């Protein structure tokens, strides 16, 4: 962390003006990141033959990539912090990261497979350079022991979430109405604005984030860069490493938002509004709830902890993080209720209120944990390793994201798959004419009314599934018409009739007590690109999962998220005193800068 060179910085609303430069820079960077994140899984899971094609991946595969991507975004903070500490300084590394992000988001707007993966790689590198170092610069704006530091990080955190809130709504709606790549493009525009703000605000950041090996570094920074860590600093590093475990657990549960909860909201939540202007709320827009709650409750939660501390009660960062983990975990109780409600009737859906309540608890937990963790690092990290420790924090966040992806992936059943074996004339009786959006010869999107199969679009048939006389039987959900003749399952391992039959038999699933499935028919995406094949009704595959089994797995996932996070938070509180001893009073001497009799705490006493 860069020491504060100018102790009489120009202030705005009681904080250095530089805080608001970093506030708006990070706000627009998060606009770009969360805008893209909100539609990423939905884009990958959208059919490749849709009017606005996605990648056509299964939910399981989409969450798998999402987990790896979000992990790498944050793990890249380790080399980003190392580059800042060893070569460029935080300020220049933030500038470089911002440029990479501008290029990454711009390329992502190109509707090509190569552009999709190239854009993701550049975004990973850009976030790695920008994210840890801009957070470290916030700490560098304040003198040692300044009690405003926590509130400064809370203000900064609100900026992050204003960007996330605006992105989730605007990018989600633009992607829904105009196309995925317009949504990606809008996210890129946000990043460009953030970069321009950072360039403009350099005059308010003099002496902050400079390279410690350079001529602009303070004497304190140069001395700290050379000397070895003392025993107190080593103990504090140990506490930081333990706190990173909290971070992994917290984000492993919290970050279901962009994966499992995003897909669950899309498929199993009643998003209809009854409004003529917006009949159905796009699933990606619900990602704005977390950011919106932070904007509303950010200062309230911060004020509560200040009041709590003045009352002389336990208010250490580790305690706040433990409490935050517990509260966040309790948010999944509402997802359990949602799962029960959706499962109460066949092909049922849950009310939106459960999503609102779940995100509310997740947000309160986040406000108790994330900004506190950022501030905690700037208090305990040795000066020479400030950016690296911030990088390790974001790497821990990345591992938490990967854990979230693995949990979300495990919650999605591998679909049974096969192929349609009849002509379109045989399957048309099981579908109705729908209003379909297509592109005409002039590449304009127009609406027509036709059977989906005539336009090579997906269609689905709701079915009862049960075992009878040693065979799997499929019956149309409402009419009871036999569907077995329409398709046959693949003989590949893990997706064949024998496995399905064994599942049905083991669970005693019969005609009087059937399972249910939504049979999704989708044309091969390569064959759909051939104009001569349009509307021939050939090359359709079919896939499905058993609704009851999928619901059981999702409910169990939500339940264990509650159990593990609450138990982990309580365990931390149990060992709180021992952990606090290793901080050597780093937080015990915080004071308002008006009370000069108090001592500093940031750099360990020799």
Q: Can you offer a commentary on this structure?
A:
- There is one protein chain.
- The chain has 606 residues and is an alpha+beta fold.
- It is built from 20 helices and 10 strands.
- The protein has helices spanning 17-45, 59-75, 77-88, 90-108, 113-140, 148-178, 180-200, 219-226, 231-254, 260-268, 288-310, 317-330, 332-343, 352-380, 386-410, 424-427, 497-506, 525-528, 547-574, 576-581, and strands at residues 11-12, 15-16, 416-420, 434-439, 445-450, 459-468, 471-476, 487-489, 515-523, 540-544.
- A 6-stranded antiparallel beta sheet has the order 7-6-9-10-3-8. A two-stranded antiparallel sheet has the order 1-2. A two-stranded antiparallel ribbon has the order 4-5.
- Helix 6 packs antiparallel against helix 7 (180-200) and helix 11 (288-310) packs across helix 14.
- The longest helix is centred in the first third of the chain and has 31 residues, at 148-178.
- The two termini are 19 Å apart.
- 50% of the residues are buried.
- The model is unreliable at 1-7 and 591-606 (pLDDT under 50).
């Amino acid at each position: 962390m860069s020491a504060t060179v100018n102790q009489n910085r120009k202030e705005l609303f009681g904080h250095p003006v530089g805080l608001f430069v970093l506030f708006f820079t990070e706000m627009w960077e998060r606009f770009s990141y969360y805008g893209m994140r909100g539609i990423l899984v939905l884009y990958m899971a959208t059919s490749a033959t849709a009017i606005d094609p996605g990648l056509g991946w299964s939910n399981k595969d989409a969450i798998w990539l999402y987990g790896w991507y979000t992990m790498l975004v944050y793990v890249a903070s380790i080399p980003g912090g190392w580059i800042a500490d060893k070569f460029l300084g935080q300020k220049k590394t933030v500038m470089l990261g911002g440029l990479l992000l501008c290029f990454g988001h711009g390329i992502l707007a190109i509707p090509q497979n190569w552009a999709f993966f190239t854009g993701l790689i550049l975004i990973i590198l850009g976030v790695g350079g920008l994210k840890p170092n801009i957070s470290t610069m916030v700490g560098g704006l304040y003198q040692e022991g300044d009690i405003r530091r926590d509130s400064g990080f809370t203000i900064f955190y609100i900026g992050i979430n204003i960007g996330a809130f605006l992105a989730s709504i605007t990018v989600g709606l633009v992607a829904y109405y105009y196309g995925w790549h317009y949504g990606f493009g809008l996210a890129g525009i946000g990043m460009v604005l953030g970069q321009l703000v950072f360039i403009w605000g350099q005059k308010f950041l003099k002496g902050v984030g400079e390279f410690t090996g350079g001529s602009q570094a303070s004497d304190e920074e140069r001395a700290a860069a050379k000397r070895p860590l003392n025993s107190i600093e080593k103990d504090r590093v140990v506490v930081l490493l333990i706190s990173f475990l909290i971070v992994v657990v917290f984000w492993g549960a919290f970050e279901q938002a962009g994966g499992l909860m995003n897909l669950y909201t899309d498929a199993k939540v009643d998003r209809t509004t009854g409004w003529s202007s917006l009949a159905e709320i796009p699933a990606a827009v619900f990602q704005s709830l977390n950011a919106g709650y932070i904007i509303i409750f950010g200062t309230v939660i911060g004020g509560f902890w200040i009041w709590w501390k003045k009352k002389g009660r336990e208010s250490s960062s580790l305690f706040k993080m433990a409490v935050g983990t517990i509260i966040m975990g309790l948010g999944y109780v509402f997802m359990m209720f949602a799962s029960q409600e959706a499962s109460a009737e066949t092909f049922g859906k849950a009310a939106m209120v459960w999503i609102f309540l779940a995100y509310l608890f997740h947000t309160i937990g986040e406000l108790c944990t994330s900004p506190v963790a950022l501030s905690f690092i700037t208090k305990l990290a040795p000066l020479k390793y400030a950016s690296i420790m911030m990088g390790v924090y974001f790497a821990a966040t990345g591992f938490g994201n990967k854990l979230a992806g693995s949990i979300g992936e495990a919650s999605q059943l591998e679909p049974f798959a096969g192929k349609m074996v009849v002509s379109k004339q045989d399957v048309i009786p099981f579908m109705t004419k729908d209003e379909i959006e297509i592109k005409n010869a002039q590449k304009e999107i127009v609406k027509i009314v036709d059977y989906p199969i005539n336009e090579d679009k997906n269609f689905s048939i709701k079915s009862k599934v049960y075992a009878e006389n040693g065979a799997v039987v499929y019956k149309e959900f409402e009419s009871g018409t036999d569907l077995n003749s329409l398709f046959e399952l693949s003989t590949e391992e893990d997706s064949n009739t024998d496995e399905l039959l064994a599942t049905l038999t083991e669970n005693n699933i019969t005609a009087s007590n059937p399972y249910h499935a939504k049979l999704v028919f989708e044309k091969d995406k390569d064959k759909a690109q051939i104009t001569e094949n349009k509307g021939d009704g050939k090359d359709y595959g079919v896939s499905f999962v058993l609704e009851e089994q999928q619901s059981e797995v999702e409910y169990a996932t939500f339940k264990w998220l509650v159990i593990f996070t609450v138990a982990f938070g309580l365990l931390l509180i149990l060992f709180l005193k021992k952990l606090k001893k290793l901080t050597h009073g780093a937080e015990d001497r915080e004071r308002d800068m008006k009370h000069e009799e108090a001592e500093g705490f940031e750099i360990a006493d020799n």
